[in-house]
Amino acid sequence: METEQKKYLLTAKKSENITDWYTQVIVNSEFVDYSAVSGMMVYRPDSYFAWDTIKEATDKLFKEAGVQDVYFPLFIPERFLMKESEHVKGFSPEVAWITHAGQSQLSERLAVRPTSETIMYDSFSRWIRSWRDLPIKFNIWASVVRWEFKHPTPLLRSREFLWNEGHSAFATLEEAEAERKIILDIYEKILREYLAIPGIRGRKTDNEKFAGAVASYSIEHLMPDGWVLQGPDHHSDGQNFARAFDIRFIDKDGQRKYVYQNTYAISTRELGAMVLTHGDDKGLVLPPKLARIQIVLVPIYNDLKKEEVLRYSRSVYESLRSNFRTYLDDRDEYSPGWKYNEWEFKGVPVRLEIGQREVDSNSVTTVRRDTGRKEGMKLEQLRDSLVSLLEDIHTNLYTRALKFLESHTFAVKSYEQLKKLVGNGIAQAPWCGSYECEAKINEETGAKITNLPSSEEENVKGQMCIYCGKEAKYIANFARSY
Amino acid sequence: METEQKKYLLTAKKSENITDWYTQVIVNSEFVDYSAVSGMMVYRPDSYFAWDTIKEATDKLFKEAGVQDVYFPLFIPERFLMKESEHVKGFSPEVAWITHAGQSQLSERLAVRPTSETIMYDSFSRWIRSWRDLPIKFNIWASVVRWEFKHPTPLLRSREFLWNEGHSAFATLEEAEAERKIILDIYEKILREYLAIPGIRGRKTDNEKFAGAVASYSIEHLMPDGWVLQGPDHHSDGQNFARAFDIRFIDKDGQRKYVYQNTYAISTRELGAMVLTHGDDKGLVLPPKLARIQIVLVPIYNDLKKEEVLRYSRSVYESLRSNFRTYLDDRDEYSPGWKYNEWEFKGVPVRLEIGQREVDSNSVTTVRRDTGRKEGMKLEQLRDSLVSLLEDIHTNLYTRALKFLESHTFAVKSYEQLKKLVGNGIAQAPWCGSYECEAKINEETGAKITNLPSSEEENVKGQMCIYCGKEAKYIANFARSY
Prior knowledge:
By secondary structure, chain A is α+β, with helices and mostly antiparallel strands. The first copy, chain A, has helices at 2-7, 18-28, 45-64, 78-81, 85-91, 117-127, 173-195, 240-245, 269-278, 306-320, 336-345, 356-360, 382-407, 415-421, 435-445; strands spanning 32-34, 41-43, 68-69, 75-77, 96-101, 104-112, 136-145, 160-170, 200-203, 215-222, 228-238, 248-250, 256-258, 260-265, 295-299, 326-328, 350-354, 363-368, 374-378, 409-411, 426-431, 448-451, 474-479. In chain A, helix 3 runs antiparallel to helix 7.
């Protein structure tokens, strides 16, 4: 008993020390765990279930958009990584290298996939011959390794993470450009409908774009501490990799041309964003669609009424389990109160309390995890009521997060104002587009440009850069960033 | 055009040179491809679709059996692999080693997961405290790396392959033993209902069991060349790993005890078994459930009737696409005959030929890939007819494979007979159980004991070992093995 109770320890407050709170919540709730390999983590059933659900839902939308799943080798020859100069600069400091197999030294080092452009595009160069072979819209669900030397944090900055890697090749730039909205719409839908978290879409600055890309677009999340976390992204690679890997096709006009390429990804980092966004001082708060257990039943009884309450609880459980992911917690050695704490810590969306009163009135008492609100529900409409309740919890979580984002996004007019707001939300300010101003602002305030929200591009006319005072080209989102 | 036609080259005959035939079929049909990393392969859309379907179907059955999916790190510290002495002997010759990250040398070498026992059981030892924490039934879907130095063959012997890794821990030996049938039943169901291939279930000899296990059980496939390929397996690890990793629990009686463990796996090797079993001299033959494209429509027209035939074909396509994975091949630059060959090479189960005759009679002509049989079908019952046809193709593939297995499994009475049959099927013979006889037979005939079919154990009474003439303990399956 004592060991058990220690496991669910949560002493840090989210509002006071979000870093400690985060670690305590995700590890002690048994969502994830550290492993013996520093910086690499274990996905326990609750976190893997959430990721697998995201994966399946995303994959379905990808397939509707004509994307096909494939799989490419985990290892990449060193000479391949070297082919695109920006790409190698970006990744080689973080590559885990295979040098030996069994007792033998390899003749060439192999990188454990930090991203798959180079190994895939070697195949693309052999597969693509004519316009008939295009477009190629391929995707991998895989794990990647980036040996970051910054302090690793489970889900947010792990040396191994799980993701999708979309890789497309098109005959024309127009087709390649058209893909961006399709993919980012899919990601936003998944974030909204499964993770219940909003994001801000926009283009990354040249300084922040993907290593090897012409332009990168991201969805950024504002976390409760006022810092921004980068979410899914989509990169326009232009013909950079096509030239490095000689990916050409004979077009309808008989000309041999380079393809245009894109890549895109969503990763397990989103689970970290989800925990940070929805969790509270009682623990995890899981959006219902991602909860491995959606409804937990806790029977409350004394010795006299035990059998009656348990029998009733079992019949409620049986009536619900085909419609909801339901768990009946009939452990005898724990008190109801202890069970409440445990399931609240683990973020289960709805608790059903079932005691003698409920038995007598043919009802259950529901308790929502997100608000703690209690409500009696009659057995007759229980299934429909629970469907509505779970939907309502999802909507509430999303709305709450969206309100926070909106109330912490500020149109700032002066550099002083920007400096004050940094670390406390997103400061939207006009920017001239120069790397010098971007770097200076970062140096002086710690804020970086998370992205350039495209919807704002037209609103910038006549405004001046918040730093240098020259004509502004963009409205930029400035924030401290994870 | 010329390049395209070369791609579909199949010159080897299955019955004459199955090795060349296999390579030509899987690579030239665009099922898989070689990669730049020797021994590692690329799963193109058709092979990945097949694997993903197997994975999802298996996962569903696992979940019904109470198994939960998790994910563990890709890397394993060298000291962990060393903990179980048989295990390390079995795997260390094939391990790919990480020695560097970025520019830094690691203080301890890391193995790329060849199998996950050691990294998982380190966690188990921390997670399991009391009987309440048991049973644990975890599973990973992952890729593993085994740097085999034998000649690699795509799917059959790849240095990286995809698989499930089931890992369970139980309080009692009885529970652990009971799991075997549940899991092997699941595997057999998947093999029968998805891959349309039968297998022979049985225990491996001590000499052939998994490194670290007390006993291993396998499902073995007989290939058309008379050799045997090992399929899915389930290993009883007893308390071997529990002792090596100190995985103990406080039982209901207050005693601290070691857990009993099992592991089990099915891998992408099954796709190789599927290709070898069903393919023919025209190329792949895919079982309908695993075919990314189940039905291909080929319109046949001259210039005069082109629009009418295409319009009709499109309407047939539209009427089928929500029920079947359907593709309309309306490419103008290829002849119908060329298309027939291409889709037959790729193993698409059913072709619909649509010409003026079909338009005039409100019908289509169906051609089955497995038998080549043609049949006219009226549009009114087309959907139902195609459902039946696909089911019939599946049944035919399975039945054909089962008949081959049965007609090539021989109860042999003498060592001379065994020697003659080896390489041409499975020779079932009484065996005394000694390693000496097993090794001698292997040395002299090239046959190994693929497994000991459990159903035969009782039939052995009074029989003598086919090699030494002493009392037999088992009926053993002798065969040459992939």
